[in-house]
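Hey team,

Filing this mostly as a record. A colleague (T.K.) asked me to run one chain through the structure pipeline before their review meeting, and I want the input and output archived in the tracker in case anyone asks later how it was produced. No errors, nothing strange. Just documentation.

Input sequence:
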Amino acid sequence: MLQQIQLQNFKSFVEETVSFVGFNLLVGANASGKSNLFDALKFLQGVALDQSVSDVLRGRTEGEREMWPGIRGAVKEAARGTSTSFTISTVWKLDDEIVHHSLTCRTSDEPCVERESLRTEGYEPYLFDTHAPALGAGGGLAPGGALNVGIKRQGSGGRALSHTYTSARSLLGQIRPEAAMHPKVLETCEKLKTAMRSSVFLDILPSRMRSYVPRRSTSLGINGQNISAVLHRLCQNEDTKTALLDWLSELTSPAVANIDFSVTEEDYVLFRLVEKDGTKISALSLSDGTLRFLGELVAVITQTSGSLLLIEEIENGLHPSRAHLLVEKIESETSANDRQVIATTHSPPLLDALSEGGLNGVSVFGRAEDDQRTVVRRAVALPHFREVLKRRGFEYLMTTKWMERAL
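Output structure:
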């Protein structure tokens, strides 16, 4: 689980630290920096997939097929203003262990890694560090694109191991085992790469959910395109099916009595909602709002343990009076399981639906008047926040920009 991220000179950030819990909602005006934080997490996913810094930023194609989309703004806009580098530092809880990772990348000339370190609490001072004291003046980036690094040695004595790798990629995917290396190094690298790779950037597109799909499809897909196959699998469990029907009955009008499926001879499947009078409405005809709700609901239900689900404008297509349904489900799933959701929202009803504990996951984004840098604070840390919220509600806090002014 991601506990914290610190961004230095990344896009609109000068130096900000954002903390996370199970269910997190990012609020703030358009262009306040919420999507830039998503870009930082997307960047980490790319480097954990062992792509070069250049490919992560610019994107990568093979033939005419896009293998990686790149980061918005690519290289030119990755570092803030006149800065020629940026740093993304994160803290993760992985198998009850706290892991710290920091990565500084240069954007001038050919993008590369300038500095990187990894440590866990209990294995101080580091598992690897490009600027380890044992390296002296020879640490870090060297001429020709080499990156010198100190690596923790097995046993209690002796200097750190010294190795040279390419600066084109993160060290997480480069370090290889050797006899003198502490086993914790590779173990932690693999755990962290798995966590970073497991981020799912959900972008529900109802137009892609209105088709027959192979019944064997096991994952929802980032656009929700395999919703029919995943629902078919979920509905094999009667308890899960009943729960889904309960959620849908509260969402839709008229109420839904059943979910059934049309299956072709070629084993392609399309789901249908059955109303109380027996009318069957297939995914071909369902509203965008119903499909968006179902997509987000199924994404949360099927989210794998230890994964991070990211959703921009989570309230899209959801009627304000039904916002509480999604909030209640996400809160229950993230509190009972090792799952995490980070979403952006502009919806007061959705925020009003949060439990008292859920307020701890609300972060407010704004821009400083002097230099337009992004500023982030926990909502509960704003002066008089709970008092004003109790008296006026989120509608007042957001329409009057009370939270942004309180930053």
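Quick notes for T.K.: The first helix runs from residue 34 to 48. The chain has a mean pLDDT of 93.
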